[in-house]
Design goal:
The chain is of the alpha/beta class. The protein folds into 3 domains: 127 residues, no CATH class; 141 residues, Rossmann fold; 253 residues, Glycogen Phosphorylase B (Rossmann fold). The strands form 5 sheets. The chain has a 6-stranded parallel beta sheet with strand order 17-16-15-18-19-20, sandwiched between helices. Strands 1, 4, 5, 6 and 7 form a 5-stranded mixed beta sheet that branches. The longest helix has 23 residues. It starts with 14 loop residues before the first helix and ends with a helix. 52% of the residues are buried. Bound molecules: pyridoxal-5'-phosphate.
Length: 551
């Protein structure tokens, strides 16, 4: 449903979309015969503005696909609520490190042939209501398969459904194989579809799993298709869960980290859910100064990011200087955007991601007087925030407001800025330019998280709750620091607030201010241990070896 290639195309809302963009880039790098399909989202996700009190306002983030891509000639038609909706596609060529091309098709219904209402189907990412979402999923899943056939891609052997939003692609494949609708034919068709599909689930948070009532299905997809879904036994309590549909239609299913696979297995006990831990595209997420260091010491790292393991041989001073350069570039951008001049000599924390309630953006701010005291006593503390709340998520909006309110009370003691309109550009600047990357989700809801992996590539250690990828990447005092208890223990908010502040006060601030060489060692081992592993090429190798292999 979302793909983030770069920030000029606002067709993503967060980690899910950025990951799919990184996956596509890695597929191009390893020269896989691969093609991707998403929606054009002409009005983007949204542009965020925060007022003086920290209240979020939203505006459309309209953009023009024609400035970035060519329109392909082929058109296809999908049936939505009994109407024929015409779908066109924009093609973006993502070019890998050796020149291999992976095309990405952005499906679009903004065509004169369509009614005003249908022209808006592909406008807003995650906008509208359940009906709007189902219409989009028809265009994505059913329209996507038809478009791949129309542009002449007949020999596809594996369809990878990336999150349940795309599950109707399995229905489209089933329809190709079941013209008569006979019971035996459907059973055989189901086997054939399962042999062709793999599925990745990306979150244990319920809002990430679409559930549509059978009534809505009948209205939007029509009775024939709904009958086919009933026949393959995916209706539960009068509704269809798109994750369950995708699981039912796939030969291989995975979660996006070890812990997430376990948790998903508990949610869907009828299925074996394998782990493939996410990775980020190293060349995209390494900031320019650190790229220069890698180019000098590990020249083939772009083609082979496993080489970053040998970062142990890079002089500490080179890593420190490159990170300092990235920090100054970040603080210059912060000053330009907010008028706030932060101090490059002070320890700077970064926290940026979607303002979803389980991510607890305000956790650091829960004990303001203790935070004030340690900022005063230690040599100084600054924190940079960014992130959007979904327009209908009032709890997320309230979290942003609270962060800004508490930071206001600490003005003069705590350096602070909340950067509006988080996007990939800001994500790159922040993960490269802060000193410590903070993450404190409620366990076990962070399926993977990827921003800490971007930080690791830039020599920025994490201070994080043991959840998602950090369970696998955390070595205390070597790649960063843990907040709270072990990963198999549930989150207890007050304990985690205290642990976060204990770690800052007792370990992180003293190391930063009193042991610069020890600090630089942590930076370097973040690159060597985590940058060398949590990259998208390693992830793609695992998908090739486990998921994409055909019998
Ligand atoms: C990497 C990235 C994310 C993912 O951040 P998490 O901390 O993993 O949730 C979200 N948004 C943008 C713009 C990113 O670049």
């Amino acid at each position: 449903m979302e793909v983030g290639i770069h920030s000029a195309m606002p067709t993503y809302s967060g980690g899910l979309g950025v990951l799919s963009g990184d996956t596509i880039k890695a597929a191009a790098d390893v020269e896989l015969p691969f093609v991707a399909v998403t929606l054009a989202h002409r009005a983007g996700y949204f542009r965020q503005h925060l007022d003086a009190e920290g209240r979020q306002n939203e505006e459309p983030a309209s953009w023009n696909p024609a400035e970035h891509m060519g329109l392909v000639e082929e058109r296809v038609t999908v049936e939505v609520e009994g109407r024929a909706v015409v779908v066109c596609a924009w093609r973006l060529d993502v070019v890998g490190v050796t020149g291999h091309v992976v095309p990405v098709y952005f499906l679009d219904t903004e065509l004169e042939e369509n009614s005003a209402e249908d022209r808006r189907i592909t406008d807003h990412l995650y906008g509208g209501d359940q009906r709007d979402r189902l219409r989009q999923e028809i265009v994505l899943g059913i329209g996507g398969v038809k478009m791949l056939r129309a542009v002449g891609l007949e020999g596809l052997d594996t369809f990878h459904m990336n999150e349940g939003h795309s599950a109707l692609l399995g229905l489209a494949l089933l329809e190709e194989r079941t013209s008569s609708g006979g019971v035996e034919e459907v059973a055989q068709g189901l086997d054939a579809v399962r042999a062709a599909c793999v599925f990745t689930t990306h979150t244990p948070v319920p809002a990430g799993h679409d559930v549509f009532s059978i009534g809505l299905f009948e209205e939007v997809l029509g009775p024939t298709r709904t009958a086919l879904l009933k026949e393959i036994d995916v209706v539960e309590d009068g509704a269809i869960n798109m994750t369950r549909l995708a699981l039912r239609l796939s030969r291989y299913c995975n979660g996006v980290a070890m812990r997430h696979a376990q948790v998903s297995g508990e949610m869907f006990p009828d299925y074996h859910i394998h782990p493939i831990t996410n990775g980020v595209h190293a060349a995209t997420w390494t900031g320019a100064p650190m790229q220069g260091v890698f180019d000098e010491y590990l020249p083939a790292w772009r083609e082979d990011p496993y080489l970053l393991r040998h970062a142990v041989d890079i002089p500490l001073e080179r890593i420190r200087r490159a990170q300092r350069e990235a920090k100054e570039a970040l603080l210059a951008e912060v000053e330009q955007r907010t008028g706030k001049a932060l101090d490059p000599d002070r320890l700077t924390l970064g926290f940026a991601r979607r303002a979803a309630p389980y991510k607890r953006a305000d956790l650091l701010m829960r004990d303001p007087e203790r935070l004030r005291a340690m900022a005063r006593a230690s040599g100084g503390l600054q924190v940079l925030y960014s992130g959007k709340a979904h327009p209908r998520n009032n709890e997320g909006k309230e979290m942003i407001r609270r962060v800004i309110e508490v930071a206001g009370l600490l003005e003069g003691d705590l350096g602070f800025a909340y950067l509006e309109d988080y996007d990939m550009h800001l994500g790159g600047l922040l993960t490269a330019g802060v000193d410590v990357w903070l993450n404190n989700p409620v366990k076990p809801l962070e399926a993977s998280g990827t921003s800490g992996m971007k930080a690791a590539l830039n020599g920025v250690p994490c201070l994080s709750v043991l959840d998602g990828w950090w369970i696998e990447g955390h070595v205390e005092g070597v790649t960063g620091w843990a907040i709270g208890t072990g990963w198999d223990q549930p989150s207890v908010t007050e304990e985690e607030v205290a642990s976060l502040l204990d770690q800052l006060e007792g370990v992180v601030l003293p190391l930063y201010y009193h042991d610069p060489e020890g600090w630089a060692r942590v930076m370097r081992s973040s690159i060597a241990l985590n940058g060398s592993h949590f990259h998208a090429r390693r992830m793609m190798h695992e998908y090739q070896a486990r998921a994409y292999r055909t019998a």
